[in-house]
Amino acid sequence: MPKLKTKSGAKKRFRLTGSGKVVRTQAGKQHGMIKRSNTQIRNQRGTAIAEDSNARMIKKYLPYG
Q1: Residue 65, pLDDT above cutoff 90
Q2: d(C-alpha 25, C-alpha 14), whole Å
Q3: Which DSSP string do the residues of 19-36 spell out, in sequence order?
Q4: How many angstroms separate the CA atoms of 8 and 5, rounded?
């Protein structure tokens, strides 16, 4: 059986926790902060856990987690 390839875009954006959950960066934080409220900017700090429906797809992209 050949080795599975990891999607290079996924390995840059996601990582798996010890329990198998998918960690992602917060969306909407790349540019345009002047338009957003301070509350929104504050709440988007750090990382978040991906939803289960998206996490199933992401885990296929990261076969060796």
Answers
A1: no
A2: 8
A3: TSPEEEEPSS-SS-GGGS
A4: 9
